[in-house]
Amino acid sequence: MSEPHTHATHPEIVKRLKRAEGHLKSVIAMIESGKPCLDIAQQLSAVEKAITNAKRTLIQDHLDHCLDETVGPLNRDQRHSIDEFKTIAKYL
Predict the structure, then answer these.
(1) How many angstroms separate the CA atoms of 78 and 74, rounded?
(2) I need a labelling partner for 42 at 20 to 30 A (CA). Which of 3, 5, 14, 72 fits?
(3) 8-31, pLDDT tens digit by residue?
(4) In total, how many domains does the chain have?
(5) How crowded is the C-beta side of 48, counted as CA atoms within 13 Å?
């Protein structure tokens, strides 16, 4: 069995996802109680943004730590390519 894989950002990601989970439950209640579609769509957008931000943080953290550990020391040109990859990944 492998060791737990954790990063410093994981507690914050869990916190964000739990908040999104509560928000999503509120959206479900809005639908069940017949709230206006515009209000529901706005709230769903907020839930979606929270999940996207949690995912982005997780991926960026992984790139910043796991990728560097895997590739090890690099010369300047190689390091530039890795740094460029990390930067462009922020736009995913």
Answers:
(1) 6
(2) 14
(3) 899 999 999 999 999 999 999 999
(4) 1
(5) 6
